[in-house]
Design goal:
By secondary structure, the protein is α+β, with helices and mostly antiparallel strands. The chain is built from twelve helices and 39 strands. It has an eight-stranded mixed beta sheet with strand order 32-33-35-34-36-37-38-39, with helices on both faces. Strands 3, 4, 5, 6 and 7 form a five-stranded antiparallel beta sheet that branches. Strand 38 (604-610), helix 11 and strand 39 form a beta-alpha-beta unit. It is an enzyme of class 3 (hydrolase). Residues 460-675 form the Peptidase S9 prolyl oligopeptidase catalytic domain.
Length: 679
């Protein structure tokens, strides 16, 4: 690679005093993508990236192998409505997931196919919800990666479009009335979001308001009609806050447009969800006074907290994740250090009736069953070498059998180990380490993690991890505080004032890999996206000597101004707000953009963004790129700082081809700067 200077980026003499602290922001101008200077700088960065990427080690080999592994397809569990089952599937030849439906005769057909809706490949299915009898389907589409959904309704039998579009319905749940004449949904307004009732064919601008007036603009709602269509539950949380308010309404007691919402939980810092069981009792899954989760019951006539009775008590070592009703039993899902287990329980007493056999040691999720109960339940299963497939459990014979597999894969041989280590403060942390058989010398290694929003890094089939290990590397996934691997306390230990714990855990994971002979600092790359991109940004600015390479995708990096764009305001409960002096100190203390210093040997860094990302503003990566290019002592191409921009895509669902390209570029960049020898 030829040594070429970085594209010039002028530094503003911009210093603001925030709560008495001078805060420099020399690349504020890069926040405006329409500014001519930004456009010129960005074009130069893209050209520079393409020049480098052409020489990345093993790029085409990784693209080919990642494509084979990623394109194994996907199958989702059935959602039963009347005699119809609805499910998502993606074959190895399709770019996006397609919604299928089966009738009473078991024959299946594609009901909603984004490839047919938009041959240009810019439209995706964001969500869908059939009516209780399966006659109608409400669904949401967005285009170009924006996630700005519009809502439609079609007739399942004929495919006729009956209603829509209803705009401003991003992330809106849909809860149908039992007769399919109307549904509850959430719509965004200038002052925030609100719950409305929409009757088919009516003007959405006249939809009656059910809930939302006067609530915080970041309020997030969850809606459900349960108990055979009689009961409406509404949950509301501030953005992504782990606690929620919860109401229940008897739809037989008042008009649907004015349900009498009765408080179940309000002003409580805990997460609770309610379902009405086949026996007419309330079943609540909650972490209230049980950070690993429990299932409680109560009579619908008395939902006071004092009346709740434990049915499935908290397990001190396993985290409750889901449950479904079968005939007289509950099927309960838990994870133990992220590994799934399913058990059967008596629905009246909670007594354990026995384990449910699983296909392996991995992840069983997305439980589903028929609304009326029955002897069968479905779930998706995956592990480190098994693509996602759907399995069916039948309690009549106690067997678990395959129900749907999307495709075949030829995964490499992999040795998977769960490694425990002590973090900076002595807390025991775990990571899963994938390596080629035989062990041996220290190898180039990728360390990844997330550590936020209660999300668990559970075992799962990863084209990125498998392609790397097959090429001779080690791939490690750290289970950091801030995630949900050990319950809600684990999450809260890595959010807000405790966010530094996530980064300390990550550094300790790297040190463990090095001390254990898995790798060396010159062979260690770190990779993360979104909140994981923040993790990588913090790691490379706090401990630059520990890492040889870093890939930071769709990242949050300017934590002083993250609330000003994208979905930032919804994440204040997770990170804090710069408007609060105490919380500003947390944010500024680790904000990667503000921690860049001149004359530091930063690792080779690749920042990747999508230009239509409406969750995390690409400006974070632009500003960080300019700061690192200014600060690093490697001012030529030997240890570069690069910016990769993907056009016409967003933060979430993307075409398979785009996903494979990103994997190939990530792995070949890491291979180049960790010295992975490609045979």
């Amino acid at each position: 690679m030829l040594a070429t200077p970085y594209p010039p980026a002028h530094r503003l003499d911009l210093v603001e005093e925030i709560h008495g602290v001078p805060v420099a922001d020399p690349y504020r101008w890069l926040e405006d993508p329409a500014d001519p200077d930004t456009k010129e700088w960005l074009a130069a960065q893209e050209a520079r990236y393409e020049e480098h990427a052409a020489d990345f080690c093993g790029r085409e080999r990784f693209r080919r192998r990642a494509g084979e592994l990623h394109r194994t397809g996907f199958a989702g569990p059935p959602s039963w409505h009347g005699e119809r089952a609805f499910f998502m599937r993606q074959s190895e030849h399709q770019e996006y997931m397609v919604l299928y439906v089966t009738g009473a005769d078991g024959a299946e057909r594609a009901l909603l196919d984004p490839h047919a809706l938009d041959p240009a490949g810019r439209t995706v299915i964001d969500s869908w919800q059939p009516s209780a009898d399966g006659r109608l389907l409400a669904y949401q589409l967005s285009a170009g990666g924006t996630e700005e959904s519009s809502l439609f309704v079609l007739d399942v039998e004929t495919g006729e479009l009956l209603d829509g579009p209803i705009d401003r319905t991003r992330y809106s749940p849909v809860a149908w009335l039992a007769d399919g004449s109307a549904f509850y949904y959430v719509r965004r307004h200038a002052t925030g979001k609100a719950v409305h009732l929409h009757r088919l064919g009516s003007d959405p601008e006249r939809d009656p308001l059910v809930l939302g007036a006067g609530r915080d603009a970041t309020t997030h709602y969850r809606l459900n009609v349960t108990g055979g269509g009689r009961w409406l539950t509404v949950a509301a949380s501030l953005g992504t806050a782990p606690g929620n308010d919860l109401w229940l309404a008897d739809l037989s007691a008042a008009p649907p447009h004015a349900p009498e919402l009765r408080v179940v939980q309000e002003g409580v810092d805990a997460h609770t969800a309610l379902r009405v069981g086949p026996d007419g009792r309330a079943y609540l899954m909650t972490d209230r006074d049980a950070p690993r989760g429990r299932i409680v019951t109560a009579e619908l006539s008395d939902l006071r907290y004092e009346s709740w009775r434990d049915l499935v008590p908290e397990d001190e070592r396993a985290v409750l994740s889901d449950f479904v009703f079968l005939d007289g039993t509950l099927l309960v899902a838990r994870t133990r250090h992220t590994v799934s287990e399913l058990t059967r329980h008596d629905a009246r007493t909670g007594q354990v009736l026995g384990p449910v056999p699983l296909p392996g040691i991995g992840t069983a999720a997305s439980l589903s069953a028929r609304p009326e109960g029955g002897p069968q339940a479905w779930f998706v299963y995956t592990d480190d070498v098994t693509p996602v497939s759907v399995w069916r459990y039948d309690e009549r014979d106690g067997r678990t059998t395959p129900w749907a597999a999307a495709g075949r894969a030829r995964p490499p041989e992999v040795v998977s180990r769960l490694v425990e280590f002590a973090s900076k403060d002595g807390t025991t942390v775990r990571m899963r380490v994938l390596a080629p058989p035989g062990g041996g010398r220290p190898r180039p290694c990728i360390l990844s993690g997330y550590g936020g929003f209660g999300r668990s890094m559970a075992p799962g089939f990863s084209a990125q991890a498998l392609a790397w290990v097959e090429a001779g590397g080690v791939y490690a996934i750290a289970q950091l505080r801030g995630g949900g691997e050990e319950g809600e306390q684990w999450h809260r230990a890595g959010m807000g004032a405790g966010k530094q714990n996530s980064f300390d855990d990550f550094h300790a994971a790297a040190e463990t890999l090095i001390a254990g002979g898995w790798t060396t600092p010159d062979q260690l790359a770190i990779v993360g996206g979104s909140n994981g991109g923040l993790l990588v940004g913090a790691a490379l600015t706090q401990r630059p000597e520990l890492y040889a390479a870093a890939v930071c995708s769709a990242p949050l990096l300017d934590m002083v101004r993250y609330e000003n764009s994208g979905l930032g305001p919804a994440w204040r409960a997770e990170y804090g707000s710069a408007a609060d002096p105490r919380e500003f100190a947390w944010l500024y203390g680790y904000s990667p953009y503000h921690r860049v210093r001149a004359g530091v040997a930063y690792p080779a860094t690749l920042l990747t963004v999508s230009d239509a990302d409406t969750r995390v503003d690409p400006a974070h990566a632009r500003k960080m790129c300019a700061a690192l290019q200014w600060g690093t002592v490697s001012v030529d191409d030997t240890i570069p700082v690069l910016l990769r921009v993907e056009h016409g895509t967003g933060h979430g669902n993307r075409a398979a081809a785009h996903a494979v390209d990103l994997i190939a570029d990530t792995l070949s960049f890491c291979a180049t700067y960790t010295g992975l020898a490609m045979d």
